[in-house]
Amino acid sequence: MGNEITDKVGGRELDVEDLQRVHKVGVPPKQKLSKEFAATLKETFFHDEPLRHFKDQAKSRQLVLGLQALFPILDWGRDYNLSKFIGDLIAGLTIASLAIPQDIGYAKLANLDPQYGLYSSFVPPLVYAFMGSSRDIAIGPVAVVSLLLGTLLQNEIDPSNKVEYQRLAFTATFFAGITQVTLGVLRLGFLIDFLSHAAIVGFMAGAAITIGLQQLKGFLGITTFTKKTDIISVMRSVLTSVHHGVNHIKKGVNPASANQIYFTGGYLLKGFRIGVVAGMIALTESIAIGRTFAAMKDYELDGNKEMVALGTMNVIGSMTSCYVATGSFSRTAVNFTAGCNTAVSNIVMSFVLLLTLLVITPLFKYTPNAVIASIIISAVIGLIDIEAMILIWKIDKLDFIACMGAFFGVVFVSVEIGLLIAVGISFAKILLQVMRPRTALLGKLPMTSVYRNIQQYPDATKVPGILIVRVDSAIYFSNSNYVKERILRWLIDEEEEVKANKQTKIQYLIVQMSPVTDIDTSGIHSLKELYQTLQKREIQLVLANPGRAVIDKLYASGFANLIGDNKIFLTVADAVLAYAPKTEEP
Hints:
Layout: H1 2-8, H2 16-22, H3 33-45, H4 59-70, H5 73-76, H6 82-109, H7 114-119, H8 123-131, E1 139-140, H9 143-154, H10 162-185, H11 197-214, H12 216-219, H13 231-240, H14 266-297, H15 303-318, E2 326-327, H16 329-337, H17 344-360, H18 369-380, H19 386-395, H20 397-412, H21 415-435, E3 439-444, E4 451-453, E5 466-471, H22 480-501, E6 508-512, H23 521-536, E7 540-544, H24 548-556, H25 559-563, E8 568-569, H26 572-579
Parallel strand pairs: 5-6, 6-7, 7-8
Antiparallel strand pairs: 1-2, 3-4, 3-5
Helix pairs in contact: 6-9, 6-16, 6-17, 6-18, 8-15, 8-17, 9-14, 10-14, 10-15, 11-18, 11-20, 11-21, 14-16, 19-20, 20-21, 22-23
């Protein structure tokens, strides 16, 4: 690099201006506030450019594209053929055979009569088939959401008060759907990402154990069973009473229930609160499942469309005696394995459930509770992912704490406490990473002009008289003071080492800013304080490779002029080439 620069300047000795003329940090042209705000808004909410297909299209074509966006079946339905239908028919019949006993068991988890589980696998899958973007998801009640819903509902109304309890269940389902639609329409799906993968793994495993223990009631024929979900209460119920009983399932299709939803009164807010929680968990599970199977078949899943589809089906479901439905992992896995091609498999399943509700339901009176309990237990065992827990432990110990916190919270306290612990630890991790970003001391790799973390590369050597520090985060009000203090601690430690070993004293502090994606006024204020502190120590502050957003703010604030243009370089190597020869011996 040095020889190339020497050639360009006619063979004379390099200076700072020469280096900066060849490699100068670009300062972007000043943007209007409206354009800058629009660009930020677009990147936050419309990064996938959902309207790109509508550009330069006739109004009639835009109408067609709009309908296809809202109802994807109008798009893929044009290429539907007999071969695809055969695959969907087989898959639909297969998942229906699994769904019927599962629905009966899951309804019990929600403290509802068995027919409500069947209702929830009839109407919602039909709606989803027209509006959903996944080819593989099988819709219906799921174990975790059923348990969560039942737990939250019974905290407000005793399940023995069936009329009021069912009304609150429909109200919660309505608001779960409204929450999901709102997130999709406003493109706020990123909110569900605050529940980390590790927290979900722990929460699901804890819920699986809780659900499995709850099935001991039917497995052992117990009639009097605890309403609590913690392991101690469940085992006490198992050991104190063993009897047997079989329930009747009401025959017929879903009755209308719109008039049962609470739109006024004290239960309105309670239903809203329960619905928001259940809706978010249902979304998290369904989208995670959808993305997993979409990746297997190499197609894209539109998360916002999924939210709108899931929300719409739950709003409609709440008006047709259904409770919260979502994508089921066990059914989706069976659907995938059975050879489904499109969402028509959900339609097939719905018609099988319709036939069941009209004709077959009386026969389930003779199905032993032990059989239903066994089916539920076998379905939830797959939610305990030991391999994922081991991997989480190996990768990130803080993630493992979140995983175990959610797990033990669900198992030993309650589902909602486990959920709160999961969310709390996930937020705590984000705050910790934002407030305490990583910094690193850089050294030069032998025979290169590359500077890397000396802890990662022990053979990297420090440059005499120059301290090179990298900040691995944006610099905001929440971490700016820490970043400044951490850099000064690096400097103090280095100065002590230099003094002890009688090396060249530190005269330049280079801050590698490539990972600094943004900076706010507090961050710039901290840089000014750092600059002033260094000036008192007769040390020059040098910046290397600040990004577009950062350099723009450094100039707007006057900080770039304060330290001087000749202290801002494109690379660490350029800065070292400029200043290494100027360092003096102690």
